[in-house]
Amino acid sequence: MKTKIFALFAAFPILFLTGCYDLKEIDETAYIVALGIDNGSKNNFSYTFQFSSPLSIMESSAEGQPEPKKEENSSVTTLTITAPDFYIAKNLTNNFLSKNIDMSHLKLIVFSAEVDESGITKHSQLLLREREVRPHTSIAISPNPASDYLKNVNPELESNTSKYYELMSLRSNNIYTPSQKLHDFVDSIKTRDRDTTLPIATKGEAVNDFPKDSNTLAWITPNDSEISAKHSVLCGTAVFRDGKLASAMDADSSMMFNFLSHNIENFVVSIKDKYNPAETLSFRIITARPAQFDVDLEKKEIHVSQKCEISFLGSHIPKGYPSKQALSDYALSILNSRVSDFLTYTYHTHKVDIFNLRDSIRKDFFLWKGWDSFDFENFYKTANFVVDIKNI
Amino acid sequence: MNSSRASAPYLLHIGISLAAYRIFTNLPLSFTRFFGTGAPLFSLISGLLFFAILFFLTKRLLRTDSESIFYSSQKTFGSFGKYLIFILFFIYIFVSSAFLVSEFSGFSKLVAFPLSPKWFIAIFFVLSASIASLSTLQSLGKLFVLFIPLSFLIIAFFLITVFFESRTENLFPLLGTAEKFNLPSFLSTFLVFSDMLLIFILKPQNTKAVSKTILRSFILGFGLVFLLVITYTAKIPYPLSKDETFPLYLLVKEVYYGRFFQRIDAIVLLVSSIWGMLNLGLNFCLLVSLSQEMFGIKNRFAMVFPISASVFFAALFLSQALSHLSQFFLALSAGLLLLGLLILAIFLKKGGKPHNEN
What is the ipTM of this complex? Predict the structure, then answer.
């Protein structure tokens, strides 16, 4: 009997669980879907909070007739606050928002390129530490104010902006920019001498102003293309070292990076016809796994091998090529040259280790002491790349 | 001491739980802090050494079916030896319980209750363990059999999937910071499995397969610890990995099976809470049984409140006033207990009539 009374007494506090310290009402909560961080005035930061407006999403989904596209994105509410600290800015929003702010649906964090190394490191670490923020939250950098990017986001085919961010940044259908997750970015900037990439978030028309990387003969790049949409885009790659912006790569180099690191599984490339340079030939390239990097420390060579399936996208074999095989071999030789140029340009000109070759070399060392004494920086800046891409 | 004896079928599950439950605490981080990327290798060495110690102890101390460790110590060193082993076990279980309450409350707070005070979460652990301690070990053993295999598989599944998403390059250099190796640091990693020593007061009656069961349970429990250490080292790059807390939580956050299945915190919270409550219940059960034996009190109910209250306050004291010393107290009590058991195993006298413990 005593045991039963004791058990009942012990079970009593369970009643308080539903409404105790961690009570959260869903209709009293405002969900942040994107966060922009810019430099503000007087050493402050300017925080752009983009909140989901569930009622607007529901209205647009419920209506049978498609509404004419508005200039402004009505599925979100965007506001900017300048404050010395993220938490002060977050607290200040409660001065005029009746709801509690929640970051558990945060999908995208955009830093302005103006924010310095300590600002990026501090904020990305702080956000990763937040229990509500998921490690898989996407992160990007904007050459313009981050607030401009967020305010110009107006999904063309998606009523839910939160889902738009998720699809844009985590799905591997965008071949011209890498995807980056918050936890991977923080891991990289907190780990010594590790380079990491971020997608570039900008306005559509600004893409054409980016500096272009070196070109490979017969290879057709998307760099001269124009995006007619005025909305925000994710295009190109920014390379970070120790939290500091070290370099940037154009759309075509980003595609090469995605190809070798297997961020994209298939893509289409166009190359000039060697017998008729006015014509272009298109090929689909499918990869199954990331490229393999083997380092020969004695010969100072980095061997890059990748297996892929190359198929010609045309109804008939162009003149001059005896077979489809000859056509594929030609495409393969151009692809090999393009990858070789890309790696040499990235490692020797940009001087960044975007594939983290240091991790591959570290396998040859048994102790951290030995690894620390190895001059990796000097090695990769002068090593030769031997590229071997095979058509399977 | 019959109430503190587990039947053979339960011993395997209790053993697995004792060897593995500290994956929910900060203790597995000690491998990374001491050995960097060499954490998996040194955790393997540490596990093998502890296995060897366990093998020696089981061979020496579990020779007769009905002889308890307290009777063996009385036979070898007289009443002084018996009470010394009593005290060493009592202190270790008490400190371990306080550590468990403190760490599991911290884990639950981190996973799901950020605004709740730690003492409030601790109350639930202590209350559930208090109720568990009123029952016998056989009843508690049934809960272990029911729960441990399932939770073991859940955690192993999550860890394996995270491992396959991690970068194996992070495991190199293989020896990590072994050049800074020192013996006390290495021995302190035994703390991850030290609760396994409690198995010697849970010895079941009438079975000859006890030693094998104990060793088998340790291998399984250690397997989970090793899986955690290797996944953590591969997922979180060194030196960042040495500054983190609650490695299992960090890895669980990484679980992402597409948009449809992520944020599995709730599952892990459930598993960790039940696992913690079961182990704390076992500890309380042993504390009550030891107290009954030491002070000759027959009423179990009378012992529960003082023990649970003192563990609760010790946990709060350790986690707030002496947070930096909590591992030190645990290491000290575990070290003394291990030393006591080793001395007993070495000098154990053979023969003699089995002691009638009733």
Answer: 0.78
pLDDT for A198: 92
How many angstroms separate the Cα of B244 from the Cα of each of A117, A354, B102, B228, B324?
Answer: 22, 25, 18, 14, 16
Encoded tokens for B249: 């939580």
- What is the C-alpha to C-alpha distance for residues B202 and B62, in angstroms, rounded to an integer? 11
From B279, B269, B301, B25, select the one nearest B143 (Cα to Cα).
Answer: B279
Give pTM, 2 decimals: 0.85
Q: Do A20 and B173 touch (CB under 8 A)?
A: no
Residue the block writes with tokens 């960042």 = B240
Does A158 or B305 have the greater pLDDT score? B305
By CB neighbour count within 10 A (0-12 exposed, 13-18 middle, 19+ buried), where does B9 fall? middle
- What is the distance between the alpha carbons of residues B154 and B265, in angstroms, rounded to a whole number? 12
Chain B: residue whose CA lies nearest to A181:
B254
Establish if B172 touches chain A: CB-CB under 8 angstroms. yes
Would you give the DSSP letter of residue A347?
I
User: Per-residue DSSP letters for A23-91?
Assistant: ---GGGEEEEEEEEEEE-STT-EEEEEEEE-HHHHHHHHH-SSPPPPPSS-TTEEEEEEEESSHHHHHH
Residues 256-295 of B with CB under 8 A from A: 256, 259, 262-263
| Shortest Cα–Cα distance, A6 to chain B (Å) | 7
Residues 6+ apart with CB under 8 A from A21: B113, B115, B116, B117, B120
- B281 pLDDT higher than 60: yes
Q: Check: CB of residue A269 under 8 Å from CB of residue A285.
A: yes
- Give the strand pairing for A45-52 and A29-39: antiparallel
Q: What is the pLDDT of residue B276?
A: 95
pLDDT score of B95 more than 90:
yes
Characterize the bridge pairing of strands A384-391 and A301-312.
parallel
Burial class (CB in 10 A: 0-12, 13-18, 19+), B91: middle
Of chain B, the end-to-end C-alpha distance in Å amounts to 8
> Quick one: pLDDT at residue B3?
46
Per-residue pLDDT band for B356 (boundaries 50, 70, 90) equals very low
| pLDDT at res. A175 | 87
Instruction: Please report residues of B whose CB lies closer than 8 A to that of A2.
Output: 301
**CB proximity under 8 Å: B 74-113 to A:** 110, 112-113
